Amino acid sequence: MGQCLPCMGDPVKDVVETPDPEIKRRQLAEAAEKRQMEASSRGIKNVQSVEQKKKKQEEIERRMAASRPGGEGGLRWQVG
Q1: Biased-composition ranges for Basic and acidic residues (predicted)?
Q2: Does residue 61 surpass a pLDDT of 60?
């Protein structure tokens, strides 16, 4: 009877190197960002169009806030 022992093989193949903690942390951060991007674009066919609309809306809101006199709610009360 022959014996087949896998432990007699090349010891270098069996060694699994653990990555440096900083590399592991960076990889986890990249994976998290990728998941967030995928989740935010789920169900949206044209992501760039949605981002452009959002930026345009924010710009309109900024302009309206800047055009308000005194920075208040835009309403003036006069007591006469």
Answers
A1: 11-37
A2: yes
